[in-house]
Every structure is written in C-alpha cells, then in structure tokens.
Amino acid sequence: MVQTVDGTMQASRPTWLVMLALGAGVAVLGLYLVPLALAGRPGTEPLTLLARGAGLGAGVLLVASALGLLVRGTGSAGGGADEGGEMRPMASDAPATIHSAPTQFEDDTPPDVHGDATIQVDDPVTEAPRTWSIALIQALEWKRFELLCAEYYREKGICHLAIPLAANGGTDLYLFQDEAHPRRATGVVHVKARSVVPAGVQGVRELLGVMAHERIERGFFMTSGTFTPEAKALGHHHKLVLIDARVLLAMIERLDPDRQQRLLVAATAGDYQSPSCPACGGQMTVATGTHGDYWGCSSYPACSWIMPMVPKTP
C-alpha cells in the first residue's frame, strides 16, 4: 500500500492484480474444478451446489475488491505515487535548489484540559503583522504553521510532497532534488506545530522511522516551538537538522523581501491564531470549563473535539 498526499492509502499495481487473479482462481475452482471432480459420484450433489455457490460468491467479492482498489489507486489527483511505487512531487515554478538551513542539534502529550492547573490564554492579534518575528511564528495555529513550512519550500523552488499525518499529528514533507531521478525523495521534513510542551524524542524517533522505511538519508524536524535537550541530543547523534522557531525565522529572513512578504500574506490571512479542528476542519473557539479555558470545536455538538490552550512563550 502507498500513502497519498491526502493521507489515504492507495493500492499498488501488484496488490490489485493478485486479488483479481485470486478471485478468478477461486471462481474457477468452485464453479468448474470441484464439480468436475465430484461428477458421477453418488450423494455429492449437495457438495457440488455448495462449491459452486461458495466459488461464485468469493470470486465476485474478490474481483469487486480488486476493481475498487484499482479505481481508488488510479483516480487520485495531484501528488501521490506512480505505477512504479515512486512518489510524485508537487511541481514548483522555480528551478530546484539545494536546501540549506542553520543547524541546531519532546512528548507532545497535552495536559488534561479538565485538570486543576490554570491555563494561560494567548492575547488575540487585532491586525495582521507587517514583519516576521519569533512571536508571530509561535502564534500560528497548527494548520497555518504547516502551510507556512510547505510554502517556504515552494518559495525556495524545491519540489515537495505534503503527506498529512493523524489528526493534529503534523505533516511530512518529502523533498525531491535529484535531477537524475526527479521522483525519488532526497529528504523528508517532519513538521509539528508547538504544543504545551517542547518537541521531544518521540517526534525525532518518528522521523527516523520514516527515513528508515523510505530509505531517505536527509531528515529535518520543523517546529514553531522548541526542542527538549534529549531531542537535540538524539537529533545530533543521527545528524538530523532540528529547526525551531528561532532557526525558522533566520531561514525566512534569508529570503528576498518579495518572498518573505508572500509567505507573510499566506500565513496571516484571516484568523491565523484560532486552531482548525483536526476532526472536522472547522474553526475552534474559546470555551470555558470548570477548570479553565480550552479550545472547543465551533460545530459542537456535531463535533466535540477539544484542545488545550498553548501557554505563551516567555
């Protein structure tokens, strides 16, 4: 199975072909071979009928499943995987360049929103900022931060493929910079917005697992917060590039003013601080419970997803 850009799973060619062949084989076995073997033997009529029914039913089910996998696999648009199993990057208007970034060598478990601790609520920004800053990067809601990271590579002219992970679990950006093999990923960027705690070793281990599975040598971890010392040590040991809000700001400031401005407009359009609901995609609003404020989905009660408030960074 191959994961597509929208997070769904798509069958590769051998999978549906094997299922199709298996369905045809089961049908032939039940409808023809078994009745032929039982022909002329007394008392085998019930077995013959049973074999034919089972062969027909199982064969139809397997063939239908194979056709369903084929339709889902070939009907997905945009980025994904081609017939050879290689990833298909998103096209970029600019020529491919080599990525460079300052190098800086956490569990993301939110606290219980029903606990007794006092939760500090970020002050809303009344107008769109005019320049980039660490405070702005940290103020971006999780989905807008993921958009910023993807747009950064687009402005750099690097072809990439964004694969969302589980709800609010971040995004993996696959980078394609091999001109000889344009559909072979040369790097992967694990993107995770800041949470109530710094990014820890769990995220670093997830990145290492993706690199090992996809056989990718270069790994980057981007967060709008900070990293724990343990995460930094593990990243340094495996020669990963850990990019926190401070390093990301330096990367953005290296771009020319026009590209910086385009990123700023894309990142701060509309409400860029209220988080998007990971469950339904709607905007979340501030809700108040018995133990303080938290983010609740605006579609409640149709959607009951809640998120803790992320404290201000000193």
Structure description:
The chain is an alpha+beta fold. The protein has two domains: 2-81; 87-273, Trna Endonuclease, Chain: A, domain 1. It has helices spanning 13-38, 45-75, 134-139, 142-155, 201-214, 229-237, 245-253, 257-268, and strands at 2-3, 9-10, 80-81, 87-88, 159-164, 171-176, 187-192, 218-223, 241-243, 284-289, 292-297, 306-307. The strands form four sheets. The chain has a five-stranded mixed beta sheet, with helices on both faces. The chain has a three-stranded antiparallel beta sheet with strand order 10-11-12, with no helix packed on it. α1 runs antiparallel to α2, α4 (142-155) packs antiparallel against α8 and α5 packs parallel to α6. It is elongated, with a radius of gyration of 26 Å. It starts with a strand and ends in a 7-residue tail after the last strand. Residues 276-308 form the DNA topoisomerase type IA zn finger domain. Pfam families: Mrr_cat (PF04471), Zn_ribbon_Top1 (PF01396). One of its GO terms (molecular function) is DNA topoisomerase activity.
Topology:
Blueprint: E1 2-3, E2 9-10, H1 13-38, H2 45-75, E3 80-81, E4 87-88, H3 134-139, H4 142-155, E5 159-164, E6 171-176, E7 187-192, H5 201-214, E8 218-223, H6 229-237, E9 241-243, H7 245-253, H8 257-268, E10 284-289, E11 292-297, E12 306-307
Parallel strand pairs: 7-8, 8-9
Antiparallel strand pairs: 1-2, 3-4, 5-6, 6-7, 10-11, 11-12
Mean of residue pLDDT?
76
Number of strands: 12
Rough shape?
elongated
- Calculate Rg over CA atoms: 26 Å
Q: Which architecture of the largest domain per CATH?
A: 3-Layer(aba) Sandwich
Helix count, DSSP H or I runs of 4 or more residues:
8
Strand residues, percent: 15-25%
